[in-house]
């Protein structure tokens, strides 16, 4: 199949295949759209079974970034990169330096950040050969306090607010007390969300491949631990996918009996058709790229060199209002929330509506 006919192609502006035999780098850098600003999205490192799998992943993710930033009214376009390889054994400073040199050649139409398989320290190494990378600066707040470049706390905060919005709309409640949330994945985002949910009085049912983190959640948050496949069968009000993509699909929907699906994972639905199934079944779905935009909002302020946590939090709090607008319109116009989100994001993209101005710093 030709690239232009790829089912996920969606008019990408540019797709770069890069290879550096000396360091073993093999990567794809996808630039979906730069209408609102330079494309920004994380660098995922994963041992993809095939080049086709890597291409499909990067195309879906970079398009998602265009929609995510447009929806959050950020002056950024959508892009993403994938490095094909095992981050545990193949990630070396030489490989990250080679990757940085390719980013430099692209001249800033794509800006990288950390993602699955890469970290803040990795982005610091990439920065040694390019300035087109973000998400690693120590952020200095207006009161002089600093925090790391990790966007996960901001993502978790946005997701927590998104769950509150879904509960308000679907269950007509202003609090989470006594509601059960099934959490799939307790990583950088998931664990922080779990803490906020527990503090708000929610009961947690959790699963993860990492047994250490499960023990911690049991002891610290009073969570009930279940097996990886058991999570779908639990009696719960909210299912929060915070690990992998495509875990909401016709097979898991046969088991899931929930009112709300709202979590941090990217590409939660296996296909657009699943979004329609959710709507038919009356399940309130918080579209993934809307609810998980806290991280890109945080990184955007970092990239603009205008970090101020009050402003960042105020922007993240907009996620609640955007989701309420989607839920209400979805009910009123009888359109699946997932389809409606795409329509609103395309409208915002076409109008070029952003609340910040892009001004590159270092
Ligand atoms: P992470 O790697 O820190 O956490 C993922 C967790 O999922 C880990 O604890 C891992 O052990 C667990 N996991 C892996 N396979 C699993 C399985 N089969 N079942 C259950 N758990 C499993 O990643 P993260 O930064 O917390 O991100 C979580 C999700 O949110 C990802 O899909 C990511 O793309 C998305 N996301 C993250 C951010 C961010 O700021 N970090 C922003 C937007 C979206």
UniProtKB/TrEMBL annotation:
Residue ranges that the Swiss-Prot or TrEMBL entry lists as coiled coil: none
Record key words, sorted: NAD, Nucleotide-binding, Oxidoreductase
Every Glutamate/phenylalanine/leucine/valine/L-tryptophan dehydrogenase C-terminal domain range: 149-357
KW Nucleotide-binding (keyword) present: yes
Amino acids binding NAD(+): 185-190
GO molecular function, one term: nucleotide binding
InterPro entries with a match to the protein in the record: Aminoacid_DH-like_N_sf (IPR046346), Glu/Leu/Phe/Val/Trp_DH (IPR006095), Glu/Leu/Phe/Val/Trp_DH_C (IPR006096), Glu/Leu/Phe/Val/Trp_DH_dimer (IPR006097), Glu/Leu/Phe/Val_DH_AS (IPR033524), Glu/Phe/Leu/Val/Trp_DH_bac/arc (IPR016211), NAD(P)-bd_dom_sf (IPR036291)
Gene3D superfamilies referenced in this protein's UniProt entry, alphabetically: Leucine Dehydrogenase, chain A, domain 1, NAD(P)-binding Rossmann-like Domain
Active site: 80 (proton donor/acceptor)
Family designation: Belongs to the Glu/Leu/Phe/Val dehydrogenases family.
The protein's role, per its UniProt record: Catalyzes the reversible oxidative deamination of glutamate to alpha-ketoglutarate and ammonia.
Name of the protein in question: Leucine dehydrogenase
Gene expressing this chain: ldh
